[in-house]
Design a protein that fits this description.
This protein is mainly beta and about 170 residues long. It is built from 1 helix and 12 strands, in the order αββββββββββββ. A hairpin with a 5-residue loop joins strand 2 and strand 3.
Length: about 170
Amino acid sequence: MNLHLQLFIRTVGILLLILFASQASAQDPGQIDLVSVVEVEVVEKDDQGNEVVKRVPAKKVVPGTEVIYTTTFKYNSDQPGTDIVITNPIPQFTVYKIGSASGDNTVIQYSVNNGQSFHSTAQLKVTDEEGNARAAQAGDYTDIRWTYLGQLEKGDEGLVEFRVVLK
């Protein structure tokens, strides 16, 4: 494949990155509002000339760029919520940055089989072409799942996030 076609495919992939889908589950539909954003960090100078790192929307990124995916949630039900799960796919043309997933009061698990099963990083295994099992590497990750611990009350808010690098 020629370089121009590869760059075109990656550019289209970036546009799709902005449309990534987060899913949340709870007892009843409509209990959770989700808002997802895709950002990059840039270094700017403040009024005193000091360098500060700011997050800005990821409008145009090139291979090698680190991209931050953040999903904020708000719980809307009048009934306390349990069993809250948020799942995000790792976008195509990216590689998960190991250790970058975060979310307060959550258990974070990963999938290497497009969300069919989730495990801790220590338990993630893949099978190579010869049928041998090996520990999963960053490029093997396909999805991330956050399971909220405890109970949510009406109006509770939070966020989960992770980082990837564009191939």
